[in-house]
Write a structure and sequence with these properties.
Layout (H helix, E strand, L loop, with lengths): L2 E3 L2 E3 L36 E9 L5 E8 L4 E4 L5 E4 L4 E5 L11 E3 L2 E12 L5 E5 L16 E8 L22 E4 L21 E4 L156 E3 L20 E4 L12 E2 L22 E2 L108 E2 L2 E2 L19 E2 L2 E2 L5 E2 L7 H10 L6 E3 L11 H8 L4 E3 L1
Parallel strand pairs: 11-12, 12-13, 14-15, 16-17, 18-20, 19-21, 22-23, 23-24
Antiparallel strand pairs: 1-2, 3-9, 3-11, 4-7, 4-10, 5-6, 5-9, 8-9
């Protein structure tokens, strides 16, 4: 069939030399030489065999049932006991460790076990249609509490149409199973869903017949933690790859035949394949979901061109692909579901080696952490983000990002930590933030940023601490536009803690005076201008309703020389290490409310120049002046 993008076949794929990852070689599985040999099952035979380990410490109770085409089935338990059961009846047997041959003893994880070989056969001339090993004894107090140690399984039946309950979800039935061989099954079988699910110790798989008729590969190998390689199965009939290789931590290689599948979903397909370094070409032109597709693939270095044109959901598609060097240029989000709230959520989170991304369209919903911790990201193309509802943490930790094109985020209601610690970022061409209600730590640590875009605005701020350190430690930001303070005084904003801490600009915009519009709502402003090194003047603030300490409100605002009056303040306040002279300080005293509190003027020009009359302005109101 080959690989196609839309109607275009891909005949030649040129891979850059730097993108070719050396695939680690899997460790060959070596069967324990102490184990009993498994019998040979012919392709036309209906039989199930299982090698089991029996401990002197456990209950050793095995329970399962088989469906036949007609009639009974017989179980040889391998310890001298044989029982016959009717179709679909529950077979149950408890082993006695001492009744098993001592010559079969072997050690596993520090325990000594003996072995039994279970053999299940249908009535003569009949076959199996399905079987279920996920059965618990009727009187078992806790489901799956009874360890049943399957070590090796070989089975087949030309009539077999369903085998999705070999192991258990979250149980301990097949967690020690190391090898499975499937000799035959019916041509009408179409699903391998969950077949090897939760076989934690599985190391080797053999399937003797073609799997071309299998369409459903959902979670087939999910949580096969120890599996390092999968045989070259025929995936040509595959239409669902949901979670197929999920949690295969040690898997080193994906079968090349996966290229022949035409899945409609690749959700979770490779999630947590932590050893995988590359994948084969995939025909994903019909896939609508790419959510979590490569999530936690920490060693994945290269992804070939991938057709995502039908994709509606890209939730965490490349999440924490920390070794991935490039995003495929063929990435296409034009079909993204407009009604989904977060189809692009954390899409590239933690892709710490990518330097850029391809341009994509139809960007909608919650873009939280979309590029967070993309440490090497240097640039992005101009993308329309106007339909984004949240850009929280969007570029958080993008240390190498130096400039950004116009970012139309007019629909985003939250910009919390959007550029947090982007310490190489110098400029943003445009940033309309008309709908954002919260700017918490938005530009914190953007130490190279020289200016804010003129269209940046806080007009819709409404979260109680919407401005906390939103410009913190922006060392090179020497001026800010009017829109920066346009939301000051909005009714919902009550906490102005650390708003301008660690800033370097010298002048507040006129819009700052709006802070007094709803002064009765303001309850906190500790460290508001702490280490605001460049600021020379602060307009009067109505602080009559402040209910918590303002000790460090102006602490180390070295250039502050006028204003800074907290009208009606009745909490401790500090002007230590500011540049306030006698005239400026007496104006501050005049604005103080009546309170038995302390005002710190240590290390200011006013400290040694105040007259007793000047001091009395404060002390007559109950204040103590600390010098």
């Amino acid at each position: 069939m080959g690989i196609r993008f839309g109607n275009t076949p891909i005949r030649n794929v040129v891979l850059e030399r730097g993108s070719l990852a050396r695939t680690p070689k899997p460790t060959p599985w070596v069967r324990n030489p102490r184990w009993l040999d498994m019998p040979t099952i012919a392709s036309n035979e209906s039989r199930f065999t299982a090698l089991v380990a029996i401990s002197s410490e456990f209950k050793n109770q095995f329970v399962f049932h088989f469906n036949t085409t007609s009639g009974n089935y017989t179980v040889d338990w391998g310890d001298g006991n044989t029982d016959t059961y009717s179709d679909n009846a529950e077979a149950e047997h408890t082993y006695n460790y001492s009744n098993l041959n001592a010559n079969t003893e072997f050690t596993h994880d520090g325990r000594i076990y003996r072995q039994a070989l279970i053999s299940v056969t249908p009535q003569a001339g009949q076959g199996f249609t399905s079987f279920d090993l996920v059965e618990d004894p009727p009187n078992n107090v806790h489901p799956y509490a009874n360890p049943r140690m399957y070590l090796d399984i070989v089975f087949g039946s030309p009539n077999l149409t369903y085998i999705s309950s070999i192991s258990s979800i979250g149980g301990n039935l097949c967690k020690h199973l190391e090898h499975v061989r499937i000799v035959n099954f019916s041509d009408s079988m179409t699903s391998f869903g969950n077949v090897f699910y939760y076989m934690y110790g599985l190391r080797s798989i053999e399937i003797d017949r073609s799997t071309s008729n299998i369409s459903n590969w959902s979670q087939t190998f999910n949580s096969c933690y120890a599996l390092e390689e999968i045989p070259e199965l025929d995936f040509s009939g595959g239409t669902t790859l949901y979670g197929t290789f999920q949690n295969c931590f040690k898997l080193t290689k994906i079968p090349a035949s996966i290229s022949n599948a035409t899945p409609t979903s690749t959700r979770n397909t490779f999630i947590n394949c932590a050893t995988l370094q590359t994948i084969p070409m995939l025909n994903t032109s019909n896939s609508t979901s790419f959510a979590n597709m490569f999530m936690y693939c920490r060693n994945l270095r290269f992804i070939p061109p991938i057709d995502t044109s039908s994709g509606t959901d890209f939730y965490r598609m490349f999440y924490l692909c920390s070794s991935l060097e490039k995003i495929p240029k063929t990435l296409n989000t034009s079909s993204t579901n407009q009604s989904d709230s977060n189809p692009l959520y954390q899409m590239f989170y933690g892709c710490s080696k990518i330097e850029t991304i391809p341009k994509f369209t139809n960007v909608v919903g919650d873009l939280r952490s979309m590029f967070q911790n993309c440490y090497s990201l240097k640039r992005i193309p101009e993308i329309d983000f106007s339909n984004a509802t949240s850009t929280t943490y969007m570029f958080n930790g993008c240390y190498s990002l130096e400039s950004l094109p116009a970012l139309n985020i007019t629909g985003s209601t939250s910009t919390i930590q959007m550029f947090y610690n982007c310490y190489s970022l110098k400029s943003i061409d445009s940033l309309p933030t008309n709908s954002s209600t919260d700017f918490y730590l938005m530009f914190y640590g953007c130490s190279s940023l020289t200016r804010l875009p003129d269209d940046f605005t806080t007009v819709s701020a409404s979260d109680s601490d919407a401005f906390e350190q939103f410009l913190g430690y922006t060392y090179n930001l020497t001026e800010i536009p009017e829109g920066t303070c346009s939301g000051f005084g909005n009714a919902g904003v009550t906490d102005y803690e650390e708003v301008f801490e660690g800033t370097y600009f010298s002048k507040l915009p006129d819009s700052f005076t709006g802070i007094n519009n709803n002064a009765d709502n303001i309850t906190r402003m500790p460290e508001m201008f702490n280490v605001a090194i460049g600021l020379k003047h602060v307009p009067t603030i109505d602080a009559s309703n402040i209910s918590s300490s303002t000790t460090n409100t102006f602490y180390q605002a070295y250039c502050l020389e006028s204003g800074g009056i907290l009208s009606g303040i009745t909490q401790n306040v500090s002007y230590r290490r500011t540049n306030m002279d006698r005239e400026a300080m007496t104006a501050v005293f005049s604005g103080l409310g009546n309170a038995s509190k302390t005002i710190n003027i240590n290390e200011t020009p006013a400290e040694g120049n105040l007259t007793d009359q000047d001091k009395a302005i404060a002390t007559n109101k109950g204040w103590t002046i600390a010098t």
